[in-house]
Amino acid sequence: MTQSITRIRPDDWHLHLRDGAMLAGIAPETARHFARAIIMPNLVPPVVRGADADGYRKRILATTGPDFTPLMTLYLTEETDPADVVAAHKAGIITAVKMYPAGATTNSASGVRDFDRVRGVLEAMAEAGIPLLCHGEVTDHSVDIFDREAVFIDRVLDPIRRATPALRVVMEHITTSDAVAYVRSQPENLGATITTHHLVINRNHILVGGIKPHYYCLPVAKRETHRVALVDAATSGDARFFLGTDSAPHTDDAKENACGCAGCFTATNTLSILAHVFEEAGALDKLEGFTSRNGPEFYRLPVNTGTLTLEKSVTPISYPAKIETGVGPVTVFDPGFPLFWRVL
Ligand code: DOR
Ligand code: ZN
Fold first, then answer.
1. Handedness of CA 120, 126, 129, 132 (dihedral sign)
2. What are the residue numbers of the active site?
3. CA distance 25 to 21
4. For 79-127, how does the pLDDT look when each residue is reduced to its tens digit (9 = 90+)?
5. CA 133, 194, 239 angle in degrees (round to 5)?
6. Residue 247 alpha carbon to ligand 1 centre in Å
7. DSSP alpha helices (H): ranges in 32-110?
8. Ligand 1 pocket residues where CB is under 6 Å
9. So what's the architecture of 3-343 in CATH?
10. In the chain, where are the structural domains located?
């Protein structure tokens, strides 16, 4: 008998859609399956003011149509005006604010260098109930890239949370058992997104047997013990952990390059991969919480009314190896094992 599961339509709580021809090429990959997504603001130039977010939201909707809801974010800079943030939130234009430590990742040059300089914005956000979404890595060159998330928790995140305890915070795309433990130790106004790819790959996948640029992302995948801790968190049913794919398209020529860009493009096959990972963990019953319930609960939004059905086939499913866009092909994340769950 064919196995199938029908669950509440999922949301993606961390997504890069880019702009222009890339947006047009890749947005349908998410809109096909997901009802809503938190849209990252690291465009060039970044989405820094409410008016920028409103324009970007309209460009996304023109591509996806009204069945998909982009939940917009602003890019926090040391010049961000608290009044603009609060007004954009009040007007329903933005859902959250993203904080990139300057230089931490793709298009983060306008991010924050001195966290004391954004204190006023963070306080205004705490008061207005606007979540802060953190790229959780320090950029200090003396800190090893594999340690940058753990050091961020001690040096940046924990001090921010102590100074502004009412601020609702999401640690984005966590990659370490340290982050899992920190989230578990904190009150419920701290949540964390986990990506699809960090549930599947460890650092060996990137580096053993030749360098694999399509597995390179930031924060970089860590050792296997950390991947296991992420699977445990995602499949535990703890509502503080929810899906944020961080699906981040770059064209193949930008990835397969002497200085390749960070980002894994998982929008196309994320749900098939997640069903596989949750089934392997004996936790298919926890998949709906992770993809469809825990995120809205954290963001204080209703769960979706629609449903999505996954069906398990006997033979491996096929999916495109690349998505063609007007700026070039984008390679779809290869989990390294056959997939059997298909979205109907
Ligand atoms: O791998 C990543 N890619 N991590 C990020 O933080 C940014 C993203 C991108 O925009 O390409
Ligand atoms: Zn991201």
1. positive
2. 246
3. 6
4. 999 999 999 999 999 999 999 999 888 888 889 999 999 999 999 999 9
5. 85
6. 8
7. 50-64, 82-90
8. 16, 42, 105-106, 135, 217-218, 246, 248, 262-263
9. Alpha-Beta Barrel (3.20)
10. 3-343
**CB-based contacts of 211: which residues, under 8 Å, 6+ apart?**
none
The enclosing H or E element of 11 equals: strand 11-15
Identify the pLDDT of residue 1: 64
Per DSSP, the three-state class of 230 is: helix
- Distance from the alpha carbon of residue 137 to the mean position of ligand 2, in angstroms: 12
Angle at 71 between CA 68 and CA 75, to 5 degrees: 140
78, 270, 337 from 2: Cα distances, Å? 54, 21, 21
Quote the tokens at residue 82: 């608290």
> Ligand 1 pocket check: which of 15, 17, 18, 261 to mutate, most ligand atoms within 8 Å of Cβ?
261
The beta strands (E) that lie in 209-319 are given as 241-243, 307-312
What's the predicted TM-score (pTM) here? 0.98
- Give, using CA atoms, the residue closest to atom 4 of ligand 1: 218
Which residue minimizes the CA distance to atom 3 of ligand 1?
263
